[in-house]
Amino acid sequence: MLVLGVETSCDETSLAVLKDGAIVSLRVASQEALHRPTGGVVPEAAARRHLEVIRFEAEAALAQAGQDVSDLDAVAYTRGPGLLGCLLVGSSFGQGLARSLGIPAVGVNHVLAHVHAALFDQAPAFPLLALVVSGGHTSLFRFRGPIEVELLGQTRDDAAGEALDKVARLLDLGYPGGAALERLAESAQGEGILFPDVRLAGARPDFSFSGLKTAARQVIASGAPGPEVARGFQRAVVGQLVETTLKALMPTDRMLVVGGGVSANRTLRRAVRERLRSVPVLLAPLPLCADNAAMIGRLGWEMLRAGIETPLGTPVRARLETLT
Ligand code: KG4
Ligand code: ZN
Question: Does residue 103 form part of some domain?
C-alpha cells in the first residue's frame, strides 16, 4: 500500500511517501527561520506558509519516491492536536487529494504518531509503555497493539520542550532553544545549579514543569552563569521525565518507546537507557524525533489496515486525546 503522509500541525510542512509502512521519501520544510524573529510560532503566519509550500512539497516527495500521484493508495494527514489554521491546510489538502483520486483518507493523532516514529526499524512488543516528549506535549501512553492505546498521564502545565524553550529564551539562546540549551549545558564547568526534584504525588504519572521554570527565572535573575543554569535545569527536566516514566512502568510492559522533539536530547536518551534497564528501550531515530510526515504515514497505514478511514468533512481538532 502506497501512502502519502501529510504533517502541518505546527511549524513544519512535511510530506512523506511510505510503501507498506516503510519510508520511501521524506521531506521536511521547517518554518524555523520564519518564526525566529518573533521568538515563537505565529499561527496565522504558519498556516499561510503551509499553504504556500504544501503542493510543491508533495510533488517533490512523490518525485523523490519515483512515484506518480496516481500510484497512491491512500492519504494520511494530521487531524490534531495542533494549531487549527495549520491543521486545516493539511486536512483540506489530504482530503481533497484523496477525493480527487478516489482513494481513502485517514486523519491521524499527531502525538500518538510520535510513538510510531520509533517503530520503523524494530518490531514492537506489546503491551508497551510510551513517552512522548515534545514542544507541545508530555504524555505517557500504554499501547496494547499498534492502535490500541490508553493515556496514562500528561503534563498539568507546560510541556517539557516548552519549558526548555522558555528557559533557553531567558538565556538569550533564541527559538526553539532546546538543542541550544543542551549545547550550553555541555559547556558547564561544574555540576550545574541544583533545582528542586519535582515529582507529583498521586497514582497518575503526571508531569509539571512550570515550578521548575519559575525557579530557573529566579536563578537567572540572580546572576547565575548560563551554562550552570542550563545544565541543572536540563538535569531536573530529564530527571522528572525518567522517574515518572519509571513510576508508570508495569512488570507486564515488554518495551519502552520514547519519541518527540525533546527525545533528541542526549542527556535524556542516556538517562532513559540507564534508569530503565528492565525493559528493551526503543528511542525514535534522531531524524524522526521532531515533527515529520513519515510518522503520520506510518500510524495512518496501521489505521487503514484496521479498516479506519476518515470521512470528508470530519473537523480537525486543536485538542485530540483519542486515536480518531
Ligand atoms: O516534536 P517537536 O518537533 O514539535 C512538537 O510537536 O512540539 O518538538 C519540538 C521541541 C522544542 O521544544 C525543541 O526545543 C525541542 O523539541 N528539542 C530539544 C532538542 N531538540 C529539539 N529539546 C532538548 N534537546 C534537544 N536536543
Ligand atoms: Zn510533534
Answer: yes
Is residue 53 within 8 A of residue 30, CB to CB? The reply is no
For residue 317, being part of any structural domain is answered with no
Residue 80 pairs in a beta bridge with 109
**How far is it, in rounded angstroms, from Cα 165 to Cα 160?**
9
Instruction: Quickly list H helices, 118-225.
Output: 160-170, 178-186, 210-221
Same-domain pairing of 194 and 301: no
**Atom 7 of ligand 1: nearest residue by CA position:** 135
Query: What tens digit of pLDDT does each residue of 247-272 get?
Result: 999 999 999 999 999 999 999 999 99
240 belongs to a structural domain:
yes
Q: Tell me: do 83 and 195 sit in the same domain.
A: no
Tell the residue nearest (CA) to atom 24 of ligand 1.
265
> Measured from the CB, is residue 259 less than 6 Å from ligand 1?
no
> Would you state the pLDDT for residue 201?
87
What's 207's DSSP letter? Answer: B
The ligand placed nearest to the CA atom of residue 209 is 1
- In tens, the pLDDT along 158-193 reads 999 999 999 999 999 988 899 999 999 999 999 999
Q: Which of 126, 98, 108 is nearest to 14 (CA)?
A: 108
Containing structural domain, residue 77: 2-114+290-305
The residue type found at 273 is: R
Of the residues 139, 262, 268, 270, which should be mutated to test ligand 1's pocket, given the most ligand atoms within 8 Å of the CB? 262
Q: Are residues 133 and 232 in the same domain?
A: yes
The pTM assigned to this predicted structure is 0.97
Could you tell me the CATH number of the domain that includes residue 42?
3.30.420.40
For residue 177, the ligand closest to its alpha carbon is: 1
Q: 280 and 300: one domain?
A: no
Indicate the top mutation candidate among 137, 164, 238 to test ligand 1's pocket, ranked by most ligand atoms within 8 A of CB.
164
Residue range 20-31, pLDDT digits in tens: 999 999 999 999
Q: Look at ligand 1, atom 10, and give the residue with the nearest C-alpha.
A: 135
Q: Tell me: do 46 and 168 sit in the same domain.
A: no
Alpha helices, DSSP H only, in 226-265?
A: 226-248
What's the domain count of the chain? 2
Q: Are residues 78 and 57 in the same domain?
A: yes
